[in-house]
UniProtKB/TrEMBL annotation:
Pfam assignment, any one: GAF
InterPro entries: GAF, GAF-like_dom_sf
Descriptive protein name: GAF domain-containing protein
Domain GAF: 96-153
Length: 164
């Protein structure tokens, strides 16, 4: 079993690898899967000046492709996770269907719980790391470790934003 320390160290090592930000994001996917667990893993980047979001990384690109931007919709989820920088835990399908329009697709992938962790820099949320798994998978005990991983995502997310 992978320890949190080993997983964090693997992500730190990935920051020095060529091929950024893909190398970093793939290491986050692997490390968070080994320590926290997920079926679906995505990274969403916020382009603040354009008021748009973009899925930049996905471990299920057929169901959740990368690319394309969409306007930011200021929902309760948006205000909590991106506005206030507070992680969101959806414990079951009702929680997911309350905040995500694509809840049926999420459920079809065997996912009925979610942990959305804001990637924060300089007082603002610049993206989110999104982990989805079976019902009841995530709890408050996952948040601190997930926030450590999210902090390590900052250079990759800033690179995406800088490249436009």
């Amino acid at each position: 079993m992978t320890t949190a320390t080993d997983a964090l160290a693997s992500v730190v090592a990935a920051t020095a690898a060529p091929g950024q930000p893909q190398a970093l994001f793939a290491a986050l996917d692997q490390a968070m899967g080994a320590t926290i667990g997920h079926k679906l893993f995505t990274i969403l980047v916020i382009h603040p000046g354009a008021k748009e979001s973009q899925r930049y990384y996905s471990n299920m690109p057929d169901a959740y492709p990368i690319g394309g931007r969409k306007p930011i919709n200021p929902t309760h989820w948006f205000n909590t996770v991106l506005g206030e920088g507070v992680p969101y835990i959806g414990y079951n399908y009702a929680d997911i269907s309350d905040v995500f329009y694509d809840h049926e697709l999420i459920r079809s992938l065997g996912c009925e719980s979610v942990l959305n962790v804001p990637v924060r820099w300089n007082g603002s949320s610049i993206g989110t790391i999104n982990l989805l798994h079976e019902r009841g998978w995530y709890g408050r005990g996952h948040v601190a470790l997930a926030q450590h991983f999210a902090a390590l995502a900052v250079p990759g997310v800033l690179k995406v934003i800088a490249e436009g």
